[in-house]
């Protein structure tokens, strides 16, 4: 997400951090959240807010897996189609998918047609059901919350993984999950509020209520 924001949407690019943009509304955002209205809305209202329910966490893990190698903007635009194709990401339903469902999904041009990632969504739904015996997926993921969250001043200071994301990756793999590498899991932890990587100057810093501002 390195596009430049249109002139009518941008008030100023911070000379000390070209990855930061102050919008016409006076609010500071990273450049990736300042270009596309859909991304801006996602950043302003959803990204980094706590997700603590099983279905929501399973959906986020699935979408993070589909995002691997692609831009998040691509996945976000396709999210309604993903939800329709995967029956709302209800784990019980996806866990029962068979060959016919796989072929249906591979023929659906509205989603990302990657066989390995589709199979991972089914495998991870089955693993999600098994985790109910250990307190459930959401609590399992949240148990890897670190003692401290990063405090990046610039985009360059935002981590891409951490000891906790590595541990979460290993733990999920042990439970039968796939496409849950440490970088992907760090992105998940950012998205669901487990860590707060909003820049210190961002208007969203501390908005999750999980970490002090």
From TrEMBL:
<protein>
    <submittedName>
        <fullName>3-methyladenine DNA glycosylase</fullName>
    </submittedName>
</protein>
<feature type="binding site">
    <location>
        <position position="198"/>
    </location>
    <ligand>
        <name>Zn(2+)</name>
    </ligand>
</feature>
<dbReference type="InterPro" id="IPR052891">
    <property type="entry name" value="DNA-3mA_glycosylase"/>
</dbReference>
<dbReference type="InterPro" id="IPR011257">
    <property type="entry name" value="DNA_glycosylase"/>
</dbReference>
<feature type="region of interest" description="Disordered">
    <location>
        <begin position="1"/>
        <end position="22"/>
    </location>
</feature>
<dbReference type="Pfam" id="PF03352">
    <property type="entry name" value="Adenine_glyco"/>
</dbReference>
<dbReference type="GO" id="GO:0006284">
    <property type="term" value="P:base-excision repair"/>
</dbReference>
<keyword id="KW-0479">Metal-binding</keyword>
<dbReference type="GO" id="GO:0046872">
    <property type="term" value="F:metal ion binding"/>
</dbReference>
<dbReference type="GO" id="GO:0008725">
    <property type="term" value="F:DNA-3-methyladenine glycosylase activity"/>
</dbReference>
<keyword id="KW-0862">Zinc</keyword>
<dbReference type="InterPro" id="IPR005019">
    <property type="entry name" value="Adenine_glyco"/>
</dbReference>
């Amino acid at each position: 997400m390195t596009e430049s924001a249109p002139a009518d949407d941008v008030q100023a690019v911070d000379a000390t951090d070209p990855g930061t943009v102050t919008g016409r509304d006076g609010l500071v955002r990273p450049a990736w959240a300042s270009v596309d209205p859909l991304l801006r809305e996602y950043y302003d209202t959803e990204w980094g807010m706590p997700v603590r329910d099983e279905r929501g966490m399973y959906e986020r893990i699935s979408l993070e897996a589909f995002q691997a190698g692609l831009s998040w903007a691509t996945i976000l635009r396709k999210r309604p189609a993903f939800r329709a194709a995967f029956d709302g990401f209800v784990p019980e339903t996806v866990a029962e998918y068979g060959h016919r469902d796989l072929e249906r999904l591979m023929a659906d041009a509205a989603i990302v047609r990657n066989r390995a990632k589709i199979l991972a969504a089914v495998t991870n739904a089955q693993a999600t059901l098994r985790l109910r015996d250990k307190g459930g997926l959401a609590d399992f993921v949240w148990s890897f919350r670190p003692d401290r969250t990063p405090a990046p001043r610039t985009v360059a200071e935002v981590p891409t993984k951490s000891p906790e994301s590595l541990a979460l990756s290993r733990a999920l793999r042990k439970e039968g999950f796939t496409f849950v590498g440490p970088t992907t899991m760090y992105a998940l932890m950012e998205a669901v509020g487990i860590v707060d990587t909003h820049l210190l100057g961002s208007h969203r810093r501390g908005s999750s209520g999980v970490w002090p501002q």
